[in-house]
Amino acid sequence: xxxxxxxxxxxxxxxxxxxxxxxxxxxxxxxxxxxxxxxxxxxxxxxxxxxxxxxxxxxxxxxxxxxxxxxxxxxxxxxxxxxxxxxxxxxxxxxxxxxxxxxxxxxxxxxxxxxxxxxxxxxxxxxxxxxxxxxxxxxxxxxxxxxxxxxxxxxxxxxxxxxxxxxxxxxxxxxx
Length: 176
Known about the structure:
With 176 residues, this protein is mostly helical. It has helices at residues 2-13, 32-40, 46-51, 55-59, 76-85, 102-121, 155-164, 167-173; strands spanning 20-24, 60-64, 88-91, 128-131. It contains eight helices and four strands, in the order αβαααβαβαβαα.
């Protein structure tokens, strides 16, 4: 959702952008190219279709990948291209399900972010890296303020626990 809104705003308001690369994974048998076409057909992009015809074809390119895979599921060719041509990274990939097992949530929300940061460290022309976290962060707070809240646990320890602990023990410890 956040990525769609961001993409629409970039296409509509930032007409001098040369290219936008989207990392898209296959999902439920639908290939990245087809998922991109489905995305552009949504109501969210009505304004762009009407006022910026051709923006989709000339500015937006998909890269097949998957943030849940090692190396983000990128081909070596795509990795090299991103390293050499990327100026700005918006990382908005995340799971927003409340019922994912902890191991899955950590893989999608933590491990993938670490991998994106590692890739960004190699980008030769990187000017900015923006991480968009889930809009459900700190939903237990009222109000949610524009401050950085201390984490409940160390992310390195959480990652290590999820990578080394068996699923049953992890499910018992998850509420803690």
